[in-house]
Amino acid sequence: MNLFTDQGYSGTTVPRIAEAAGLTTRTFFRHFSDKRDVLFLRDREFPQAVSDFMESIPQERGGTATVRAGLAAACRGLQEWREQIARRRSIIRSEPALHERDLLRSHYLARAIERSLNQRGIAPEHAHTLAALAVTCFDLAMDRWLEGPSDLSLEDALTAVWTDMQGWING
């Protein structure tokens, strides 16, 4: 992350990343397909974590309550990573070549939420819509959290965005 921050994404080469990590370039490519994978490594795990949290919610809870609880639990796990997430976000937003990959992150999260809702018996069209709203709320909460005061928790930002969203829909 430091290399991307110091040299910019475009100015950071795979051999330089490998060297900084104490690896050969060949070893780097055994673990990563390209340098983008370094920035998006944890994105593979997050949708599954949200699904796991959602599975732990009692079955009698509705779809919206399940999604909110699942995302809130995930938020608590991210709270301590604020500085690293902010740095990563800055790198991604400064490099147009990374925008598509970031959109895929949101897509994979929505698909995981949708699958979890389907497994709970939520109607497919409701699950699809709720998953899209959930990811939008999560992304907006992430923005609010990273741009807000340092004492704002990601979970509180998410709760505020959900409340705002309900007001916009009902208003």
In short:
By secondary structure, this protein is an all-alpha fold. It has 10 helices and no strands.
Description:
The chain is built from ten helices and no strands. It has 171 residues and is mainly alpha-helical. The longest helix has 24 residues, at 124-147. The N and C termini lie far apart (42 Å).
List strands and helices in order, with pairings:
Elements (H helix, E strand, L loop, with lengths): L1 H6 L6 H7 L4 H7 L4 H4 L6 H10 L7 H16 L3 H13 L4 H21 L4 H24 L6 H17 L1
Helix pairs in contact: 5-6, 5-8, 6-9, 6-10, 8-9, 9-10
The shape, in one word, is globular
Question: Strand share of the residues?
Answer: under 5%
Number of helices: 10
Helicity level, as a percent range? over 70%
Given as residue ranges, the uncertain stretches (5+ residues, pLDDT < 50) are: none
Which H/E pattern describes the elements?
HHHHHHHHHH
Integer-rounded radius of gyration? 18 Å
Mean pLDDT: 92
Question: Helix- and strand-based class?
Answer: mainly alpha
Beginning-to-end CA distance, first to last residue: 42 Å
Q: State the total count of DSSP E strands.
A: 0
Query: Describe the biggest sheet?
Result: none
